[in-house]
């Protein structure tokens, strides 16, 4: 039989291991989603952007002055929107994890700053 101190130490170690596994799983899942999104956007860019001159002579922005440049703009806007959504989801996930770790009744740092002002 273990004494109480040893049991508490074993439980804390198991919690750390489970947390590491969960974080590793989340990182792998987010990486896979990002790769799938990248592949989907590349496929979309291939179908949306029309055939034409692929090299811009002189300046890099000259390609966007063509008539069929709407596909490039569309892909850029979609990529930006996807990045914003992923960033917001990651921030919310981090806030939720911090609240679970610190306790749900404690205010966040942002709420504490608002109270101090």
Description:
The protein is mostly helical and 117 residues long. The protein has one domain. It is 74% helix and 0% strand. Helix 1 packs antiparallel against helix 2. The longest helix has 45 residues. The protein is elongated and about 75 Å long. The termini are far apart. The model has no long low-confidence stretch (mean pLDDT 76).
Fold blueprint:
Elements: H1 4-48, H2 70-102, H3 109-116
Helix pairs in contact: 1-2
Quick structural summary:
The protein has 117 residues and is mostly helical.
Distance separating the two termini: 54 Å
Number of helices: 3
H/E element sequence: HHH
Mean pLDDT: 76
Largest sheet: none
Radius of gyration: 24 Å
DSSP helix fraction: over 70%
Number of domains: 1
Percentage beta strand: under 5%
Sheet/helix structural class? mainly alpha
Number of strands: 0
Descriptive terms for the model:
117 residues; mainly alpha; 3 helices; 74% helix; elongated
